[in-house]
Known about the structure:
With 242 residues, the chain is an alpha/beta fold.
Amino acid sequence: MASTEPLLRVEKIEVLYQKVITAIHGVSLDVHPGQITVLLGANGAGKTTTLRAVSGFLGSDDADVSEGRILFDGEAIENRQPHEVAARGIALVPEHNKVFETLTVTENLDATGADSGVGKATRRQMIDRVFEYFPRLAPARNRLAGYLSGGERQMLAMGAALVCSPRLLLVDELSLGLAPRIVEDLMTQMVKLKKELGLTVLLVEQSAHLALEIADHGYIMENGRIVLDGTPERLRQHKDVQ
Ligand code: ATP
């Protein structure tokens, strides 16, 4: 395991929906800087709940972190509002509603960075780089996002998150509903972003096979608990990751 301090440390958290339904129990995980960490598990295992606990979006589902702590760069961030978490440099690419469908590609990239605290000149440079990393978006820059394919929407959502120059990128189900070729392209770009920008990523995936190709470290969740963690080689031994 990496010898550096984790950028994100989730410590024995429990999440309650509507004050009564315990969705995750004593979950702990570390995300180290400059690494891609994957969180794997079947439908309903608790992956999205864990990401929402980190990003601050639990509140919109009448849920909260009732036990444990979430430390980002040493500072406690559990039960904060999403904008407070975003201001610290954590960006989320959600599972659904990834883009503003009635805005163009460029407007989407402009809009998400606008209240991030990142200066306009830096955002302009990042928008240019987004078109380099995802060249399929360049000819579509003036097209409404509602007309993009699923793969292009995922590229745009990742691009919009990057415009804020995040210190930690949270991605919920990169592969959902996409053809394997597109998923491979997206994963290749993610590795490039890690190498060139030093991006740190926590990626939630049901599709373990591809995610483990690019992961530095991973965790497997079942029924709201972490049941295994380790290197991709170790996780491939698990019965559900064959
Ligand atoms: P998926 O791949 O389907 O998103 P997941 O691993 O991300 O699955 P979660 O969506 O985090 O799993 O769900 C974990 C548990 O929390 C499930 O038992 C689910 O029923 C429960 N849960 C999720 N959202 C709510 C909600 N809004 N109210 C009550 N319970 C919820």
